[in-house]
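Appendix B. One record, verbatim.
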Amino acid sequence: MSDIKQTIVIVEDDDGMRRALQRLLTLAGYNTLAYESAEALNATCGIERAWCLVLDVQLPGASGPTLYAQLGEPRPPAVFITSHDNETTRLAVANAGGVHFLVKPFAGTDLLKLIAMLGAQ
């Protein structure tokens, strides 16, 4: 597997959650790039290295679904995470083209299973 396929980009505004996700994914053997906002990601070339995205739904500035909808095709698969599980949030993710969704708090193994599934596709 090349470095590009192993790089997971995390966009999460909560510092503790962002560090925990980065630690989990690094221990699972992935390279990670982590950002506190969509704007911070867009200011770098991080998206070009992404094989997969882990996007918080509610971010300061542009939301995770807004960021994902604005990415050009082909775009990497994404796992959306949120603590606000409601119809509006799920609709925003679906309208952006998102399929995979986890509600905080979630087990790290659930995230790893989703990412492994994406790699098998």
